[in-house]
Design brief:
The complex is a heterodimer. By secondary structure, chain A is α+β, with helices and mostly antiparallel strands. Chain A has helices at residues 4-11, 15-47, 71-76, 110-113, 121-129, 138-144, 194-200, 221-231, 244-253, 258-287, 289-297, 302-339, 350-377, 380-385, and strands spanning 54-59, 67-68, 81-89, 102-106, 133-137, 151-155, 167-176, 189-193, 207-208, 210-215, 239-243. Chain B is built from 14 helices and twelve strands. In chain B, the strands form two sheets. In chain B, strands 1, 2, 3, 4, 5, 6, 7, 8, 9 and 10 form a ten-stranded mixed beta sheet that branches. Chain B has a two-stranded antiparallel sheet with strand order 11-12. Classes of the chains: A alpha+beta, B alpha+beta.
Chain lengths: 387, 441
Amino acid sequence: MKYLQLVWSAMFRRKTRTIFTLLSVLAAFLLFGLLDSVRSAFAGAANSVAGVDRLVTVSKISFTLSLPKSLLPRIQALPGVATVTYANWFGGVYQDPKNFFANEAVADNFFDLYPEWQLSAAERTAFHSTRTGAVVGESLAKKFNWKIGDKIPLQATIFPQKGGANDWTFDLVGMFRVADPKQKSRESVLFFNWDYFDEARAFGNGNVGWYLIRVTDRNLAQQVASAVDALSTNSDHETKTQTEQAFNAAFVSQYGDIGLIVGAIMGAVFFTLILLTGNTMAQAVRERIPELAVLKTIGFSNQSVLGLLLTESVLLILLGGAIGLVLAGVVVDAVRAAVGEAVPMSRVGASIWLRGLGLMVLIGLIVGALPARRGMRLRIVDALAGR
Amino acid sequence: MRASRLRSAGFLAASIGAAAAAIALLVLAPWWLLLALVASLGLWMLSTRIGRQAWSVTEVGLATIPQRIAASSVVVVGIAGVVAVLVALLAMAAGFELALRQGGTDDTAIVMRAGSQTEINSVLDHDSATLVAQAPQVLRDAAGVPIASPELVLVASLPKKSSGQDANVEIRGVGERAWSLRPNVTIINGRRFGPGLREMIVGNGAREQFAGLDLGSALKLNGQTWTVVGEFDSQDAHNSELWADNDVVAATYRRGSSTAAVTVRLTGADAFDAFKAALASDPRLKVDAKTTRAYYTDQSAGLSKLIRILGITIATIMAIGAVFGALNTMYAAVATRSREIATLRAIGFRALPVIVSVMLETMLLALLGGLLGAAATWVLFNHYTVSTLGANFTQVVFAFQVSGSVLWTGIKWALAIGLIGGLFPALRAARLQVTAGLREL
């Protein structure tokens, strides 16, 4: 620590070069922060702890096909099942297809299974007692400037009303919030009453999109899932039951291997970065050979010279990288504020910083290794003689 | 002191402006204009005295590159990285767009229930489907039957070859006229499915991505067994699909006599407006018509735009890093050659040849980097096949298209990075004090 001053002044021996190198490092870690934020958002959607005690039952052929409502009492009666609810995708469009958000018809007890969607008791009662009632997440309400009491018109893309009209209008009676800041994107959804939906729609009546089951004990999840699927084996509506987590992971993975794409890009970025800063460090050491010889002459050991040079390169990367990650955090927050919480970018939090810092130290050691070894090995006599 | 600082700030601002203008020219100019610029530069170097001076200084610079090979390779590899990432992402966007756009033409139209944006969301009853096919703008074949195919789009889960995980594949039930509606569909293996039979043909994209779709294999859907009897190639988005007889698919999935959409061949591309108007004015129909080109373009627009924006954002950040790398290298190059440059100035060389030589050297290194990056992407990714989730909640298979225009964009970016990376060191070289430079060790 006492040599920090020495390392620092050596680093800024050539200001322009060091600043340019810092800016390159900054750019690389800015990119790392942004890409890792996207990757974590997708990985988070797949691996969120929420939903380990919830099962999703969908049609075995495809989750786009519906299931008969007659399964409900039979699932409810299975041992290990605490609560069952059901929902249906609606796919309505608010004003323009670009304003996409999820909207689903849900059963009465839907919010029992989802305590993370916090809805006040009064608003919940209002939701149940208003036939055409709807509740939305606070982020979504803020985005479209909706207030309680507003009428929200949705254009059906799948389900016309009886008589063929595509216009459905819902009364906004409540707003729910998600406490966990990492899960804020889950506020971008509108729920309305399944009973109204089933009465009013032109076709598909009496079918539900999917069932959601809470198990009494999460260790029973696998057993319950098999028991549910056994109910419909060899029928014309076979089901597939899995944990919500596994269901989400499978869905996300259908977009493509985000981790692989991000990994490939970061590989290219860091490869270039190592080459670039390695060159800078090599230049810096080459220029300073007489100075290093002086250090050794006045009693610095080989190891301390090695240590000084490695510290310098790690410090260089840490400095640029940290500024880059701070900048990435600012950019991510700005994007989330501008586009809304639904954007697949998680905040640049502790885990991204930890991975980033680990990479910075590693890259610092790699780029410093060769020049530092050269500094360590140099012979005082040769170096001072300029050989 | 104050005045000189002010002057150098003004000089910096002017050179930044010049660099910005040059880059705008580089990015916006068509290839022939750039070619003309290069040609006139060559002409200038051959024909004028100052041009010949510039060339000889450049030659000296290039000859000393092997001595600075490590530093110079930083410029090359840095720029190669930027170009490789940019070209790969642009090729991905282009490939997705191409796969979907090729499925559409102006003389075929798709009719769905009003309000539906995709076939999977649409339901048409039997009567509507028949009425649509009877419209006068629909082309009829030799037997006088309208070329229209009522189609049903459904989704099945099948394991992907790459991950073993289930992903959605699109099953399209097609009518008897589907073959004359889409003449580009050719059977490359086996035969067509037989009408009324539980037989299926698979697109070659789907067969590559999903397991268990080889000729003769059995497929269990909704409790019933289907046989794969053929493989087709349509060279468009249908390659990601499995096709079967519409009536049999409807029976398997309990869809009764309804279909999802009707696709028709029009009497000509100019008949579409009349067709749309005819459907809109029929009180028995609640449908929307789109040309298939518009339908597929809409489906690809969002994702390819997203990939392009991502590609350009990532490449811009990488380019900033590469610019500073190039600046470092070239400043160092100018510094090591400062005595040589000062000597040239002392014996009467003007500033311009020095500027031109440093810029040219950087641009050549950048060009090399650009070519390297572009070539690497081309070798690794051209026609590399991947799939993603499309509008019908099913996998759309597409191949990266490392096309000429994508490569050209990559090269232009490389040159732009070289331009900035070379300009400032070149200006420093030109402003070098001759006396100070000669004293330099």
